[in-house]
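User: Design a sequence. Structure:
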């Protein structure tokens, strides 16, 4: 059993006193499983973690302060770098918050396009999370089965947005490009690849004794603990709480789509892994419904305060030219006020709080990132576990440093 830690050790902060035969080690940031951006300072009794202190800040970019010093639409590329495994979802959440400041509704075609791109992003994110989590435990084969369909989705995003990883696709008031000819066929082919890969991954892992021994009853997060730390998304649902922003606070017609919210029982690494697997299935269901229902119409709101006029008008009409000029150089100007707007992203609820003073720059921007709550609980989760278990826990939490540090 681990040696009990004295009160002195608990209160020494980063300067942990050596106690008995305990050894102080760093897990990360150089460890491959910490992606060069996470660090946990640990006291070990043999290979058992008796105390851990998580540290962040290795990828801090000052997102919120940068967002207060550029125009509203210029923030969109910065949001790509929050959760860069599902960048378009961050675009959507930010644009939705600014649109709430204006009190506007975007066209239905733009709504459905956002839903489609967001659910594709959720699939990409979960595929990476589960593939890398299995790879960290030695299951390299699963990584290739997860990455292949993800690449097919990336091919779609390249053709749709012009970029692969950081897409900057959304604009306040809609999206920048309409879907291309042949989009539906490409999407269906990609979804078939996703379905095939999920079948293989489930065959490889669900009854794999080694994999199950490594993740069952490891890193258990009880319901009460998940709620107290402010967990959302797959982590909260794996602990048995069926909270999903798309269901509880519906937006973008999510209340009209037929899909389920998978939940776990124990809140261990096993539950977190397979909740994400099932969420991929549910996203596929949503995508097929959205493609079948997408209406015709404009992809951006026709509002001169927000959307530049068509180029043919800019070249032939002085008022349109002035409108275009002012939007480019001065940006959009929401009315004075503040808003909190949230969306269900791959890691959980991402919320944007924006204060507007009526100028071209936001007075204050604050982001609620699900990874911050998750990594805050890491020390409590891994205490009493082996070092190897800490790697399994970290992979199941899916900490993305871009949204953790912001």
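Assistant: Done.
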């Amino acid at each position: 059993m681990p040696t009990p830690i004295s009160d002195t050790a608990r209160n020494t902060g980063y300067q942990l006193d050596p106690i008995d035969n305990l050894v102080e080690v760093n897990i990360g940031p150089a460890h491959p499983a910490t992606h060069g951006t996470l660090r946990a300072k640990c006291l070990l009794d043999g290979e058992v973690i008796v105390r851990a202190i998580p540290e962040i800040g290795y990828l801090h970019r000052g997102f919120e302060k940068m967002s207060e010093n550029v125009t509203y639409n210029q923030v969109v590329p910065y949001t790509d770098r929050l959760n860069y495994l599902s960048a378009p979802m961050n675009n959507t959440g930010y644009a939705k918050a600014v649109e709430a400041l204006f009190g506007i509704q975007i066209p239905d075609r733009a709504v459905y396009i956002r839903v489609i791109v967001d659910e594709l992003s959720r699939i990409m994110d979960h595929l990476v999370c589960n593939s890398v989590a299995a790879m960290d435990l030695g299951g390299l084969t699963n990584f290739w089965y997860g990455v292949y369909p993800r690449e097919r989705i990336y091919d779609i995003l390249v053709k749709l947005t012009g970029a692969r990883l950081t897409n900057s696709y959304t604009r306040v008031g809609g999206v920048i490009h309409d879907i291309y000819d042949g989009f539906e066929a490409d999407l269906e082919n990609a979804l078939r690849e996703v379905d095939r890969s999920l079948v293989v991954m489930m065959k490889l892992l669900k009854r794999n004794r080694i994999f199950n021994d490594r993740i069952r009853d490891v890193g258990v997060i009880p319901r009460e603990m998940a709620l107290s730390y402010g967990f959302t998304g797959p982590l909260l649902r794996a602990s048995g709480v069926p909270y999903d922003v798309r269901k509880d606070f519906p937006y973008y017609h999510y209340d009209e789509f037929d899909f389920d919210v998978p939940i776990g029982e124990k809140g261990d690494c096993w539950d977190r892994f397979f909740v994400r697997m099932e969420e991929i299935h549910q996203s596929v269901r949503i995508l097929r419904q959205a493609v079948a229902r997408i209406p015709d119409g404009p992809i951006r709101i026709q509002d001169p305060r927000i959307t530049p006029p068509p180029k043919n008008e800019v070249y032939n009409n002085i008022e349109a030219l002035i409108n275009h000029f002012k939007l480019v150089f001065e940006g959009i100007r929401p009315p004075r006020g503040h808003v909190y707007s949230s969306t269900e992203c791959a890691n959980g609820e991402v919320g944007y709080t924006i204060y507007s003073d009526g100028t071209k720059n936001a007075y204050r921007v604050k982001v609620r990132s699900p990874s911050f709550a998750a990594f805050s609980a890491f020390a409590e989760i891994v205490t009493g576990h082996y070092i190897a278990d800490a790697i399994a826990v970290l992979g199941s939490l899916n900490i993305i440093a871009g949204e953790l540090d912001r």
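The longest helix spans residues 108-136. Residues 1-16 have pLDDT under 50 and may be disordered.
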